[in-house]
Amino acid sequence: MSLIDSTSHSASRWKQWAGLLARFLSGEMVIQVISFATGVFLFQHFTKSEAAYYNLANSMLGMMVLLSDNGIGAGIYAIGGKVWQDRRRFGELINTALQLRRTLTIITMVVIAPFTWWLLVHNGCSPTHAAMITLLVLIGTHYQILGSILGEVPKLHLQAVRFQKLNVWVALIRLGLLGVAWLTWLSALTALVANLLGSIFQTRVLKKWVPPLADPEAMPHGEDRRMMIGLMKRQLPSSIYFCLSGQVSLFLISITGNVSAVADVAALSALSRIFSVVAAVLSTIILPRFSHLQKAGVIWVRYLQILGLFVVVGLGMCAVAAMFPHQLLFLVGKNYYHLENEVLLMVGGSVLGVVSGSLFALNTVRGWIISPWLHIPVSISTQALLIFLLPVNTVSDVLWLGLLSHIPAFAMNFWQTQHEVRKQRKAEAINPLV
Question: What are the residue ranges spanned by the domains of the chain?
């Protein structure tokens, strides 16, 4: 291939990527505007106690979803990146994942549900109300997990725009249902019902999309099961740790029973929803394509490009937070105007968390799991030191704890990628067909 041809091919590839990103980001902006409007609407109309209950419920739901995955999603990408074009083989993979996740979900629910109920009651929720919220969290977990696995099918088939259109409808349904709740009875309970109905709708649509792409009648695959169980065993300590460490700030402030502080943290978290755009680009466009890459040199170049993109976007968001904190707080209502100094801390922590989480996701889709015997002791030691140094009795202290806690994970995930790429380069040098 001549230099002119190579340049033309490179320009064509970048033009194709630019067009895809433009279409995706325009749709994603619609989703995020709707989602952000939904979050702002809730925090402007919730009492502080209802805002706290809603935040606690969503945090527990997120924990259950993460623990129920525990390497299964990584297995879908690691295997699916090679077999997605074979409908029957892809169906075997998806059914294997569904079977394993069903077992993990039951175990996770049994462990986390009582703690969810206790945490709600401890923060002033009545036992009956807490039980109803906990039940909705359990049902929501089931549908989110089912939807996340089925959603990998169109993603791996690179149907990003189609999947995004579905998410637009889900966001509109949730907003519409919240509008109805506002006219009748708006609370953490009815907001969770609106979220649940949106998840049910999404799952039903995905069930209709899957059969042409992955055979729903295919039997679970034994080798896939063994590989996924191997990933699960390696990732289980990390998953448990990430769940606990990711929620440590919320736990520390929730256990004090300070409902106002819980609501403050929740309101600031709502402002960081803009990073959902970055997460959506990662999960829907970047991860499926990254899982398809095979050569070490290409993997490393793409990895650095992705990291650079996220850092630039994150720094831009920090600049906006530093310049316009009052304007951002105006969006969530007058109950939170006193948090002007904490806005940059929340956004900075979100930036570092998103970048660190992105590195972790890029590694897991390739089956590169960092040893838990390395990162867990390092991360726990870091958090213990921070808790010792910080009083952790104010919102600002909690946000500093969350921000600084991301640093070890970022460093170790970056090191893990370098290590794995070097190993693959050596293997390719010995056997060019690897």
Answer: 13-429
Sequence-ordered alpha helix ranges (H) in 257-295: 259-271, 276-281, 287-292
Phi first, then psi, for residue 265 (nearest 5°) are -65, -40
| 423: Cβ contacts below 8 Å, ≥ 6 apart | none
Q: Say how far apart CA 409 and CA 352 lie, in whole Å.
A: 10
- Write the Ramachandran bin of 37: left for phi over 0, alpha for psi from -120 to 50, otherwise beta: alpha
Three-class DSSP category at 392:
coil
Other Cβ atoms closer than 10 A to 118: 12
| Structural contact between residues 168 and 92, judged by C-beta atoms closer than 8 angstroms | no
Q: Give dist(CA 91, CA 155) in Å, integer.
A: 14
* pTM (whole model) above 0.85: no
Residue 431 Ramachandran class (φ > 0 left, ψ -120 to 50 alpha, else beta) = beta
Residue 258 and residue 418 in contact, taking contact as beta carbons nearer than 8 Å? no
Q: Which residue has the tokens 């077992």?
A: 103
pLDDT per residue of the chain (434 residues) written in tens, 0 to 9: 444 444 555 555 556 555 555 565 566 667 767 777 777 777 777 887 888 888 889 888 988 888 887 778 878 887 887 888 888 999 999 999 998 888 888 888 888 899 899 888 888 889 999 999 999 999 999 998 899 889 888 888 878 778 878 888 898 898 889 888 888 888 889 999 999 999 999 999 999 999 999 998 989 888 888 888 887 777 777 666 666 655 555 565 555 545 566 667 666 776 666 666 666 666 666 777 787 787 888 889 988 988 888 888 888 888 888 888 888 777 776 777 778 888 888 888 888 887 887 888 888 778 787 776 676 777 778 777 777 777 666 777 778 877 888 888 888 889 888 988 898 888 888 876 55
Q: In terms of C-beta density within 10 A (0-12 exposed, 13-18 middle, 19 or more buried), how is residue 114 classed?
A: exposed
Token readout for 228 is: 């996924």
Encoded amino acid at 135, one letter = L
Burial (CB count <10 Å: 0-12, 13-18, 19+), residue 345:
buried
